[in-house]
């Protein structure tokens, strides 16, 4: 930071010139983060906060991790960036190879881009083009099927397959409309519905749609196991496996969005491992680089790859790309992050913290203003209501979730809500003691804003 600029000036510039994402700028109050250590962020005045949202769900091993820092520095001694359009570099090639080794079987081809939305956009366009170039061609397959309350990004294509109205409805005239099925999450079913009943009903509805419309559908797009930005909506066991079986039966491509779930977030490296599912496209971002650099990857199969091969004159090329796709700095830190997973046995080491998070979440179940507590792995959600009877939901204009998260800051914790759902999703390195601090702060914030 330029020490010649005082903190009040920086705050003024932040409020005047920086347009923050998903933020009502008329109500924004600056908070300038300067440093990070492990699961902690430190602002310009030295105040410490536990990073309860993993810096928008992307930080994996903690801030200022020595091995990740070193990977970036060592790559800087070579080259910071060279284009991936018709060229390559050693570290990006190594990362692509490593991703094919850790990903589900059959995903052998890797297309690099910049962030989660672009990873999904790549898969949507590849699927669309695939059906025009495969043998025999099936150009009627130009629609997508997705899940209600799903979020896949903010580009026009990803808005088309998204289902969170508050994020994308205003842009409806600019994009397409996917076929949608309701979320199978039990918390979105009638009271008393069991997970098995929710799974069967959802798969039955899906089967009917595919039976009638499979010839129109290029791909199904879904987040496996958990719908993250839709409110941490946990799918019933067997739904993902059933989805894969139905798409295979009707030869519909399956795009799995593991942007939020990938890299240990649900307790396994990829969420789809939990039901032994291998998709046609696997979309990765956020935790890919451990939260260090913007990078995304869309993995796909030999079958899809083959449909794009031919001479230049045949114009079968995938005419899509990103300036920083395959960036060497990002590739270097992503490769090292995967090594850290293996060397530090991250998935095993995080088990005590997962157990502690589950224990602490149980304490919210009986709160008079909590209608549901849910989660998977290192992601948990507390859904707020005015009254559990009904339930009666708060007026969205009251922004109870956001206010509860702001109140939690007084207790040294940074959280972000999803509407009136308070989300706890810290780095995987967070200790059981830090889990306690996160949960204590969340409870204090909810009590301050909602009362008992």
In the predicted model, the low-confidence regions spanning at least 5 consecutive residues are none
The CATH architecture of the largest domain comes to: 3-Layer(aba) Sandwich
Shape type? globular
- Rg for CA atoms: 22 Å
CATH superfamily of the largest domain: Type I PLP-dependent aspartate aminotransferase-like (Major domain)
Structural class: alpha/beta
Number of helices: 15
Secondary structure tally: strands: 17
Main sheet makeup: 7 strands, mixed
Beta-strand fraction estimate: 15-25%
Strand order of the largest sheet: 4-12-11-10-7-5-6
Kindly report the CATH topology of the largest domain: Aspartate Aminotransferase, domain 2
Mean pLDDT score, rounded? 96
Helix content range of the residues, please?
A: 25-40%
Broad CATH class of the largest domain: Alpha Beta
**What is the straight-line distance between the termini?**
43 Å
Tally of domains:
2
Explain this structure to me?
There is one protein chain. This protein has 452 residues and is of the alpha/beta class. It has 2 domains: 31-61 and 347-450, Aspartate Aminotransferase, domain 1, CATH 3.90.1150; 70-343, Aspartate Aminotransferase, domain 2. It has helices at residues 7-17, 54-57, 66-76, 90-102, 116-133, 156-161, 165-168, 195-213, 239-249, 302-306, 328-343, 346-349, 351-361, 400-408, 432-450, and strands at residues 33-37, 40-43, 48-51, 109-113, 143-147, 179-181, 217-222, 226-227, 233-234, 253-257, 281-284, 296-300, 370-375, 380-384, 413-414, 416-418, 421-424. Strand 8 and strand 9 form a beta hairpin. Helix 3 packs antiparallel against helix 11 (328-343), helix 8 packs parallel to helix 9 and helix 14 packs across helix 15 (432-450). The two termini are 43 Å apart.
